[in-house]
Amino acid sequence: AEFGSRDLRNPENDLRRFRGRLAFAGVAVLVACGVLVARFVYLQVVQHDHFRTLAETNRIAIVPIAPSRGMITDRNGVVLAQSYSAYTLEIQPSRVRDLERTIDDLAAIVDIAPRDRKRFHKLLDESKNFESLPIRTKLTDEEVARFAANRYRFPGVEIKARLFRNYPFGALASHAIGYIGRINDRDLARIAAWEESADYKGTDTIGKVGIELAYERELHGTTGVEEVEVDAAGRAVRTLSRVPPIAGNNLRLSIDIALQAAAEAAFGDRRGALVAIEPATGDVLAFVSRPGYDPNLFVDGIDSASWQELNESPDKPLLNRPLRGAYPPGSTIKPFLALGALSSGKRTSAQAFADPGYFQLAGSTHRFRDDKKGGHGTVDMTKAIVVSCDTYFYLLANDTDIDDSWRFMSTLGFGKPTGIDIEGEVPGVLPSRAWKRQRFAGAQYREEHRKWYLGDSISAGIGQGYTAFTPVQLAHATAAIANDGIAFEPHLVQSIEDSRTRETRPVERHPPVSIPAKPEHLAVIRNALVQVTKEGTSAGAFKDARYTSGGKTGTAQVFSLKGEEYKAHKVDERLRDHAWYIAYAPADKPTIALAVLVENGGFGAQAAAPIARQVLDYTLLGLKRTEPAPSMAGPGPDAEDESD
Question: What's the pTM value of the predicted model, to 2 decimals?
């Protein structure tokens, strides 16, 4: 029975089932083929452009080309800053498995100093991991060849040609020229504010201070673009297209680098500042801040030892003294206060007073001492400037409201930035009642701290107390006196040369302003300043000069003597008086006006005036000296009859 049931199977049913399965399989195959064909159509037709772009992206790299930074020259065309190309060994950390081992292996091929390692790790901390960072800069041809022969061993390491900045004169005029450094977050924010982020692709450095910062957008140039075909390892195979970069524009400064060198040499190892201006134009002829620094140290990224030395030095070489150093002006303020008194009618030039050697406020036992015990006898305005009589100016300050003095002095540029074309200028301090109330507005001060006292005015009358000016302010005001009361805004850049067309355009400047002083009053002050160099406090420094100049000495206290007599040899060197000298020459038609400050130099006649003499000798006579200006011999810092 079991055998019979097997024989009873229906072949038709089996065939029908087989055909059904076959049909289902055929449909499934057709559907699968249809889906596959549809996918092929979608990828190769519909999405053709998209995937072609992706393929091209993998094959083609867009490489930004940094532009060459513009050149900076002095007024005579002498190069002060320029760019050049050199080879750099760079590592892309994201493509390196063992960074330290890679650096050690590289050091066996190319000389890598500890300074290079420190700089690399500093950049690594500040940068994104995918950026290419230099481990060695300025490779020699031999080093390039050695690495090229071993390149296969170092994935993620390559040699690039980069642009570097060079300052041929080193520290000379460094505070005017400035330097470049690696772009940081603050710089990126500034670039974004300019809406020029795309133009800084491929650029690692930017101007940090001085002219390099102030004229960054002129000097930088326009970034170029290169399309490069690359292989699977990311190595360049060939260049497909190239849009060349446009070099930055060139700047011609007003500075005469030879005069700058003469001025800096005159200081020797003394700390201080000098600003020389052409009165008829506002051109800054020399801009000295001593000591200075070598801007070349910053180009590759300054090493920590050099930075620590510069940053922690008690001499403050990074301080831009002409721009950011605010010092009590001492007796250099006297000609300007005298001009204000003539303009307001508080004094006439012939009005004379007896000088007993001190001034005493009514109802007070305190005496404001004159610089000369026993006084200078009968003193008019001219004599007061020539012999630098303090008592005369104590009396003038007593008779002049401080706010009236503030109004006139502000027209000369004191108490506010002069507008010189580099950043960081401080306004100094030109005191007034409003200034004092604001200065002592804090809750820690009482009302008596905010009140203006007559004693404050007396101190301000000889350039002490709260008064503090910058060297550039004093040079600017001196130039205005020398130029018949017409004041030009000081500037360091004369013109800009377009790197493509070579056309030169002058830098836009504000129109000059006239100070509110009559010609006859200006003549009185200029005559007194000329007499200073002939028979006054700077006569010794300008003895036998083959030209006539005007000038004024100044000595400014660094700390209060509290009634004690000043004896320089008993005071720490950094607490000694600052020495000032302001000058212009030739007296009849001035071509140069200047202000000199020697920090803790003592008396202006002894320390600052000889430096001014050396600078004027070079400017007017071409006399070159390599030795520092000597301190003038005189009655000595402890003499009772010192007349500054």
Answer: 0.85
